[in-house]
Amino acid sequence: MIQVFSQLLSAALGSVGFGLIFNLNRRYLPAAGVGGLLAWLAYLLAANTLHSVFLANLLAGFCAALYAEILARCCNAPSTPFFITAAIPLIPGSTLYYCMNAVVSNDLSAAEHFGEQTFLAALGIAGGMAIAWCLADLSRKLHTLAIRSSGK
To answer: Strand, coil or helix: what is 92?
Structure first.
């Protein structure tokens, strides 16, 4: 339990830190921290139940993008900075490092394993993001269509 709490706190602080690096408006920094915490929480829950790197990252990327879209509408700001800071904890840095280390050490079976894990994580994040952004775009178009049809 303490390990999970420390992971969630680290995800939130890491997201805030990257928000500072990316010059995110200071009033949005707490929201960036919450986004990182929620994305990592979604990943942890999905990883423990689904036992799939791809599906866990797909769900976490979807949650991060959905959170960013909701926040963008509430704050009347673009969603991209919110998504980037929320997705920071999901970036598969350790598996990429282990992959490159295995390549340098000429351990091709380990490099293949870690490369596959890195690719699946990145593909999952991108897929979740794409699904959430397609749904948000569809929602905007339906809302616009409803407003136009009610005005006639």
So the answer is: coil
Work out the number of other CB atoms within 10 angstroms of the CB of residue 86: 33
Q: Is 72 exposed, middle or buried (0-12, 13-18, 19+ CB in 10 A)?
A: middle
d(CA 152, CA 142): 16
Q: Which of 92, 82, 80 is nearest to 124 (CA)?
A: 92
The residues, ordered by sequence, that sit 6+ positions from 126 with a Cβ below 8 Å of its Cβ are 61
CB 47 within 8 A of CB 117: no
Q: What is the mean pLDDT of each run of 10 residues along the chain (152 residues)?
A: 94 95 92 96 95 96 96 91 94 95 96 96 96 94 88 62
The reported pTM is 0.91
Closest CA to 32 of 50, 11, 5: 11
Distance of CA 138 to the CA centre of its chain: 20
